[in-house]
Amino acid sequence: MKLRIIFIIAFVSLIGSIAYCQFPVLMDTLIKSTRVSNYGELVIKYRDINEDKLPKPLLRESKDDPELISFQINSVEKLVEIANEIFTKKEIEQLIESRFILDCKILPSGKIVSASFVFYEKNPQIYLKKLTLFSQEIKERLSITPIFSEKIDREGYVQCYIFAYDVFRNNLKQE
Q: Cα–Cα distance between 93 and 71 in angstroms, integer?
């Protein structure tokens, strides 16, 4: 009986330590999901795992709440620079072919707290590690300031989409 209890304790400890060892690896990564859109297109999304830890979204709940007017990215060139540092030219071409959209969650201060990626019809053949690094660099080096009709005095996030495939396509044309 004692041997059985010791075995159970050792087994639970082993499983717990394995699960705990995996936790730091998942602190900043992307989760892949696929679906078919209402238009029959294949949609592949790499969702930032940090989305689950965000404050609630800033929604316009009444006419008295400030209205979101637009967004101002601090530097489109910096987005291209980050991509060029991480991806090869061939990989950037794959991002363009996949109609790559950057899905950001941003705070009123302009800080990007989540950077996810959406692809249509074609999943680019790029390692998850590179996509995760791209997400991290976007959050660290870019800012997107939401412009509201009035000052915002509460915390929350707003969602911003950047059609990155157009940005990258235009950059390739200029080279």
A: 26
**Cα Rg, the chain, nearest whole Å:** 21
Which residue from 108, 112, 99, 106 is spatially nearest to 45, judged by alpha carbons? 99
Query: Rounded to an integer, what distance in angstroms lies between the CA atom of residue 93 and that of residue 46?
Result: 18
Measured distance CA(175)–CA(168) in Å, rounded: 11
Distance of CA 29 to the CA centre of its chain: 9
CA-to-CA dists, residue 35 to 80, 105, 121, angstroms? 28, 21, 10
Q: What is the pLDDT of residues 90-130, one digit of tens each?
A: 999 999 999 999 999 998 888 999 999 999 988 899 999 99
Q: What is the pLDDT of residues 19-37, one digit of tens each?
A: 444 444 445 678 888 888 8
Q: How far apart are CA 51 and CA 34, in angstroms?
A: 17
The widest CA-to-CA distance across the chain, in whole angstroms, is 75
Q: Do 134 and 78 touch, CB atoms closer than 8 A? A: no
> Strand 158-162's sheet: what is its strand order?
30-36, 42-48, 112-120, 101-106, 158-162
